[in-house]
Amino acid sequence: MLSYKQILVYVSLFLRVALAATGGPQLRNVMYLTGQHPIVPPAPQVSSVTHVILAFMRSATFNDANPNEWPLFTTVNATRDKFAPGTKIMIAIGGWGDTQGFADAARTAQTRTLFAENIARMVSATGADGVDIDWEYPGGNGADYKTTPNPTKAWEIPAYPLLLSTIRSALPAPKLISAAVPGLPRDMLAFTPHTLPSLLPSLSFLNIMTYDLMNRRDAVTAHHTGVQSSLRALDAYHAAGVPYEDMNLGFAFYVKWFETAVDGGCDVQAIGCRAALMEDPATGEDLGRAGAFAWHDEVPGQLDASFTRAMGYGVYDEEGGGQYFWDGEEGVWWSWDTPEAILRKFPAVVERRGVGGVFAWGLGEDGDGWVHLDALNEGVEGWRKRRENEGGERDEL
């Protein structure tokens, strides 16, 4: 006899298959599963997940002439057992700061072919359903933007679509290729009206990182994953030629904090007041005045009192669309999504723009309470039901 959890899993799978068979909407619900937080909640809480992306494999691995292993914190088969049948399991390559392997691969037709063929070998060996390319900042503005100026990376912009095209040619057609791409327009150096037409044919969808939209390079406080800043990101890609249905909106299962400047005006207006200098002007190195931690993590000791105040007195900004708190006692700006803020993004962003899916970084980061995951799932299921009802009404007409 099937258990209650197994019944929920199979009902969710049946609904997904039925929607696909009738041409109904299939909102992607994508979860990154990371080596830092490799935990998965009980089956019912992930029954609506459509894709899992395991993060990360190092990009340099695929430049070896004969790689004989594919190092990852888990296996595809072990991951499949934790999700509903039919869930796509993908492998992310790269990540923040992991750029050199991609640059080495992109330089020539020969290096691109080696890189792509090794990816195809890895996908075959692991049984993955595809790959997520996390060369997040081709053309510049990555972790080394101070020590390796953007002009020296300009050649990467035309090379990036060539690399993706070569990967697409090497992978069998059913296999998926997605790309994690910047959420700030200032970082979209390789994602322009000139380059995107050559990128899109290689990609199944784009994971737009609509989080970290305030980071240590910024001089004033802002929401790191706000509604208005998320809309600006989506609209920038759309204006450059990306259909909204090819985009996934990113959600952050973590909280961010930033020190603010003394006499920065935060006591008068917390949003848009001056932040402290957070990175070395010469090297771009982190000065330790900003950071992030997952909901699953312990709060850093020096921030415990300030975080407690943020959780107790945080407010939602109706204009910018984000939860925030400025701690005047310690001069710390906090920015995060509550479950309620996540639900607000469905009518305000997901449905308003008609994107094709959502994703979260990352699944295990929300343990052990899973309240942000539950909110995201609720938003996804509500969207699916509303779209299904709209389809029925159109059919009757």
UniProtKB/TrEMBL annotation:
- Any one GO molecular-function label of the UniProt entry: chitin binding
Supply the enzyme class, top level: hydrolase
Entry EC no(s): 3.2.1.14
Residue span(s) of domain GH18: 27-383
Q: Does the keyword RNA-binding apply?
A: no
Q: Which UniProt keywords apply?
A: Hydrolase, Signal
Q: Short name of one Pfam family for this protein?
A: Glyco_hydro_18
Instruction: Provide the GO biological process annotations.
Output: carbohydrate metabolic process; chitin catabolic process
Of the GO CC terms on this record, one is:
extracellular region
SMART domains the record matches: Glyco_18
Q: Kindly indicate where the leader peptide sits in this chain.
A: 1-20
Question: Per its record, how is this protein called by name?
Answer: chitinase
